[in-house]
Amino acid sequence: MQFILFPESASQASLRLRIAYLGYAFVIILGTIPGARAEVGEVASGFFLHFVAYACMTALLFTGYQGTAGARALRAIAIVAVMGALDEFIQSFLPYRNGTIKDWYVDMAAAIVASAILAQLYLKARRKSPAAAKAATGRGAR
Question: Which UniProt keywords apply (predicted)?
Answer without folding.
Answer: Membrane, Transmembrane, Transmembrane helix
